[in-house]
Design goal:
Elements (H helix, E strand, L loop, with lengths): L2 H29 L3 H6 L8 H6 L9 H24 L5 H12 L8 H8 L3 H29 L7 H18 L2 E6 L5 E3 L2 H25 L4 H20 L7 H22 L4
Helix pairs in contact: 1-4, 1-5, 4-5, 4-11, 5-7, 7-8, 7-9, 9-10, 10-11
Length: about 280
């Protein structure tokens, strides 16, 4: 893939994140009043490692899901702009797939569909469609960062477009195949779906493999920068998990800080690796 083609993906990502943020902004005045009712109707608390520690001590706050969702989309937009600016002329195979990870957080904007359904009495099919879009975005982000680690460990595939197509098709199959409960949601205002425990184990495995792949790359390519990229990968996974599952005010700010720190590690170190190429 040429640099201009890759930059086209960056520009498309910036547009997508801008549209998502614009929709949230427009919908905010309509949907915010119904968040307390939706929060009390949640059938369970959202999952996640940090959530498991927080839930016994703090009750969910109604407006946290909206704040966390907005923060995720703002992060996606700002980071995509910065990636385009700093990597516009830098040939770094990994950065395309890290950008896909960043862009995946723009899909969090579809969580506005639950309060919109409450306001306008929309058919349940809209919730199912929005949930599949959300699942696609979340798994696409995880698989994208994993793919970046595979490239770092020495994968030599020149036609990145084929990899993007396979990645998209595989994620789409998962998102379309998972059963969705159109009547129930958790405290982060995400619809409940099937096989969640299995997917959590798969996600944890992918995260572990991704981090180890970057560490192996540091050894095999004699480039210690990949050690920090691996650390950054752990931080962005952790921050992302905290942010998308947040339902108390204690979580979003640390989540954004951790996510930003991990992003800084990854981008600065990758830029240093490919600076002279």
């Amino acid at each position: 893939m040429t640099i201009s083609s890759r930059n086209g993906f960056f520009k498309a990502g910036i547009i997508l994140a801008t549209v998502s943020l614009s929709l949230i902004t427009v919908a905010a005045f309509i949907i915010l009043p119904v968040y307390p009712k939706l929060s009390s109707a949640a059938v369970q608390r959202s999952g996640g490692v940090i959530q498991a520690l927080v839930c016994p001590f703090l009750d969910p706050a109604p407006y946290v899901p909206f704040a966390a969702m907005t923060a995720a989309v703002v992060y996606a937009l700002v980071t995509m702009i910065l990636i385009y600016y700093f990597f516009e002329k830098t040939q770094a195979p990994e950065i395309l797939f890290f950008a896909f990870f960043v862009l995946s957080l723009a899909f969090e904007g579809v969580r506005t569909m639950i309060p919109l359904k409450q306001v306008y009495a929309l058919p349940g099919v809209f919730l199912v469609m929005a949930s599949r879009v959300l699942l696609f975005g979340r798994y696409f982000g995880i698989f994208s960062l994993f793919t970046a680690s595979v490239y770092a460990s020495g994968l030599e595939i020149q036609k990145q477009g084929y990899v993007v197509f396979i990645l998209t098709a595989a994620t789409l199959m998962i998102a379309l195949g998972v059963p969705i409960d159109a009547l129930s949601w958790d405290s982060s205002l995400a619809m409940l779906s099937g096989y969640m425990e299995m997917f959590r184990m798969v996600e944890a495995s992918i995260i572990g493999i991704t981090i180890m792949s970057f560490f192996v790359s540091a050894y095999s390519r004699d480039s210690r920068e990949y050690i920090f990229v691996g650390i950054g990968s752990f931080l962005v996974f952790l921050g992302r998990n905290m942010l998308i599952s947040a339902d108390t005010w204690i979580t979003p700010v640390p989540a954004v800080v951790i996510l930003t720190l991990g992003t800084w590690f990854i981008c600065t170190q990758l830029h240093r690796v490919y600076l002279w190429l």
